[in-house]
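Whiteboard transcription, Tuesday session. T.W. wrote the structure tokens on the left side:
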């Protein structure tokens, strides 16, 4: 039992929608882990090891371990932060596939996603910083019954210019914007649905 004055550590789950080793979205997630407010832990989830969805496979063997892990991480988190690349003006198939798996079976959707605070950010090499992909996620998040945060927006364009060769976010102005964005989302995620 918590006593007055004790604060539970807020946990946010961050998931990068890229499998690439040098992914800018994974680098943005790592930067965010250093910039979250005090008393907040940003846990990195993963879509690695999740096969293409096939209802026959699900019926035969159930959910893959990587999917079960992701689902329980979402449940345990106070909020979900999607770091999305943009492929051909929309959501990367590999990322959507992972979220589709996490929505199985349908009776579990409310437990996993219902009312879950969610925000979407993204980094791209182009100048528009995943604006189309972020917008495309909104319909998916609505279908899952989440509570999307739309007050803040963070789109990292020309990613090659703001990350150094080691994948560290070197742009100070962008670091400050990311820090403010994270503080805003954490504040939203920890408000009890008011």
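and on the right, the sequence the group agreed on:
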């Amino acid at each position: 039992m918590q006593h007055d004055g004790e604060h539970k550590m807020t946990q946010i789950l961050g998931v990068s929608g890229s499998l690439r080793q040098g992914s800018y979205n994974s680098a943005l997630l790592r930067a965010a882990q250093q910039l979250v407010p005090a008393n907040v832990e940003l846990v990195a989830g993963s879509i690695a090891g999740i096969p293409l969805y096939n209802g026959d496979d699900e019926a035969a063997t159930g959910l893959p371990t990587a999917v079960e892990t992701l689902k329980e991480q979402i449940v345990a988190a106070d909020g979900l932060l999607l770091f999305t690349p943009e492929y051909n003006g929309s959501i990367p198939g590999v990322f959507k596939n992972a979220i589709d798996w996490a929505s199985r079976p349908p009776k579990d959707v409310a437990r996993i996603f219902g009312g879950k605070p969610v925000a979407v950010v993204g980094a791209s090499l182009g100048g528009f910083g995943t604006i189309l992909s972020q917008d495309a996620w909104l319909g998916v998040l609505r279908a899952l019954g989440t509570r999307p945060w739309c007050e803040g927006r963070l789109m990292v364009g020309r990613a090659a210019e703001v990350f150094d060769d080691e994948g560290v976010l070197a742009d100070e102005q962008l670091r400050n914007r990311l820090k403010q964005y994270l503080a805003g989302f954490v504040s939203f995620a920890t408000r009890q649905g008011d």
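Someone added at the bottom: The first strand starts at residue 10 and ends at 16.
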